[in-house]
Amino acid sequence: MIKVAILGYGNIGKAAEQAIMQAPDMELVGIFHHNDSIDSIQADVVLISTPTREVQHFAQSLLLRGISTIDSFDIHTEIYSHMQVLKPIAMQHQAVSIISAGWDPGTDSLIRAIMLAMTPEGQTYTNFGPGRSMGHTVAAKAIEGVKDAVSITIPIGEGKHQRDVYVQLEEGEDWQMVRQRIINDDYFAHDPINVIPVDSVQPFDTHGHGVLIQRQGVASGISDQQLSFSMTINNPALTAQVMVACARAAVRMKASQQYGAFTTIHIPPIYFLPLDEEQAIKTLV
Amino acid sequence: MIKVAILGYGNIGKAAEQAIMQAPDMELVGIFHHNDSIDSIQADVVLISTPTREVQHFAQSLLLRGISTIDSFDIHTEIYSHMQVLKPIAMQHQAVSIISAGWDPGTDSLIRAIMLAMTPEGQTYTNFGPGRSMGHTVAAKAIEGVKDAVSITIPIGEGKHQRDVYVQLEEGEDWQMVRQRIINDDYFAHDPINVIPVDSVQPFDTHGHGVLIQRQGVASGISDQQLSFSMTINNPALTAQVMVACARAAVRMKASQQYGAFTTIHIPPIYFLPLDEEQAIKTLV
Questions:
Q1: Are A12 and A74 in contact (CB under 8 A)?
Q2: Domains of chain A
Q3: Element (H or E) spanning A166, and its range?
Q4: Which of A38, A223, A248, B154 is the 20 to 30 Å CA partner of B140?
Q5: Do B273 and A237 touch (CB under 8 A)?
Q6: CA angle at residue B169 from B164 to B171, to 5 degrees?
Q7: A64 to chain B nearest CA, in Å?
Q8: In this complex, do B245 and A220 lie within 8 Å of one another by their Cβ atoms?
Q9: Contacts with A234 from chain B: Cβ below 8 Å
């Protein structure tokens, strides 16, 4: 049995608890809050389900002790440098860190990679939502002057999105200043945005989300190959389930002495599954 | 540059020629017909695009000489044993064989594996077509008494299919006997089938095909996660392009001393792509 601990007990941590309990090959050995001391964690793998900006610090501490880590670090522009930071530590301490393991980044990254392999020339569009973005919601909540927030992602076509950020202000805060802080945050700086003041974010606080990935491309010189992946999902549930699949993969990478930091596209997909090789080939290939 | 040869110059071999010529990291070093002597082939990787039933024989001969092979062996029930035959030869001669590399088996296998990782409980349906099945068409053509044939796959829902096999008889053959041979062939024995006599198969001989893979499953204990992948494609073009992506992957597997026989789900998807790691992460993850 793979000994798995959870660090961070928000929406994803709670979902991960369910996913681990239902995994036939895993044992949940502890749940730690992000303000606990983590020196006492003993596990094969730790799922780090803290806010993204705290992930790297915790991953470093755990990898230094030779404990493998899974995170769902979701700032796309910083994934490569996040990997570069964790890689040497993981290699030196013979551990495995699988980063950005959720659905986007995560399984959507896999889909985009496979679509590109199938059609080396072409255009891929990733259209999210409508749905509540966990990463953007956490980022908005962390901004000074924000009492509570929900960030909804609205697809506006061809892979472009609008962010509708519903914000409940801290008492006595200046709306325009808080609004400006949100607009300037790196999470929000790249998309059209509506920042909307509300008395309560409750009505907007759903877990439903989805994505439509479309590619039109060329295979073997022949154009008009049309590829499409779509899903409607419960956001924390799917994120946590992908992290759990990656926890299994981390153990297998480590068993084959492939230490280091990896994204989902570095992992043989068979490693994600609680099946032996014969079963996997006979049921999936 | 990766030196790639093509063995078998039918629809897939011709498409592979185009795909190799457009690959930035590959050089086409030879095209061999399936009745040529293959002892003279010098290449890093050979794409074996012969009829499926000839694949294993050619792969064995090439692997024995340390030449990596890619095939699109497509008899689903025999993939595992095909791998077991090639694996020790590839390992002994420090070569890599990627088998069943097309779209199904192949990239569809990857999609099914990823969907299973996302939702460990649930039901996956793979619905093909309508379209001309290359494997079934070749199998039908090989049957005694058949002058020419085309097998069309018709989806009938929930992953079930009907085969419409259009057959032009050899002169003097008995229709009922030929029909029975087709029905009894392992390729056709598992699905409802219509065997239809025609004067010419030309009107049915198209390259358009497609698939719809649907999964409804449970993630982290929460049901009703809906996943869907679909595509409409040119069948030999996509098959060949996936083989070319696997040729690249085979070279990378070999470079990291991972010798043996593998299916697409054994391969880190990043290996399929002509991108360096930083580019791949920044554009796909």
A1: no
A2: 2-105+235-284 (3.40.50.720), 120-233 (3.30.360.10)
A3: strand A160-169
A4: A223
A5: no
A6: 175
A7: 24
A8: no
A9: 219-220, 222, 224-225
Upstream peptide bond of B24 is cis (omega within 30 degrees of 0):
no
- Of the candidates B23, B220, B244, which has its C-beta nearest A15's C-beta? B220
What six digits make up the tokens of A14?
């709670």
Chain A residues within an 8 Å CB radius of B267? 268
Cβ atoms of A246 and A98 closer than 8 Å: yes
Whether A91 contacts chain B with CB within 8 A: no
For chain B positions 120-139, those within 8 Å of chain A (CB to CB) are 120-121
Pairing of strands B26-32, A146-157: unpaired
Helix (H), strand (E), coil (C) string for chain B: CEEEEEECCCHHHHHHHHHHHHCCCEEEEEEECCCCCCCCCCCCEEEECCCHHHHHHHHHHHHHCCCEEEECCCCHHHHHHHHHHHHHHHHHCCCEEECCCEECCEHHHHHHHHHHHHCCEEEEEEEECCEECHHHHHHHHCCCCEEEEEEEEEEEECCEEEEEEEEEECCCCCHHHHHHHHHHCCCCCCCCEEEEECCCCHHHCCCEEEEEEEEEEEECCEEEEEEEEEEEEEHHHHHHHHHHHHHHHHHHHHHCCCCEEECHHHCCHHHHCCCCHHHHHHHHC
Cα separation, A99 vs A265, whole angstroms: 10
Contact status of B232 with chain A (Cβ, < 8 Å): yes
Summarised one tens digit per residue, pLDDT across range B14-53 is: 999 999 999 999 999 999 998 888 999 999 999 999 999 9
Contact B276, B52 (CB under 8 A): no
- CA distances (Å), origin A80, targets A62, A84, B127, B235: 20, 6, 37, 35
Split at pLDDT 50, 70, 90, the class of A35 is confident
Handedness of CA B9, B11, B12, B17 (dihedral sign): positive
3-state secondary structure of A47: strand
A200-250 pLDDT tens trace: 999 998 899 999 999 999 999 999 999 999 999 999 999 999 999 999 999
Cα distance between residue A255 and residue B26, in whole Å: 33
Q: What is the pLDDT of residues B130-176, one digit of tens each?
A: 999 888 999 999 999 999 999 999 999 888 999 999 999 999 999 99
Tokens of A197: 């003041």
Question: Are the C-beta atoms of residues A246 and A46 closer than 8 Å to each other?
Answer: no
B241 contacts chain A (CB < 8 A) = yes
In this complex, is the C-beta atom of B235 within 8 Å of any C-beta atom belonging to chain A? Answer: no
**Stated pTM of the model:** 0.93
Higher pLDDT, B15 or A133: B15
Amino acid at A46: V
> Under an 8 A CB cutoff, do B19 and A220 touch?
yes
Distance of CA B45 to the CA centre of its chain: 16
- Is A52 exposed, middle or buried (CB count within 10 Å of its CB: 0-12, 13-18, 19+)? buried
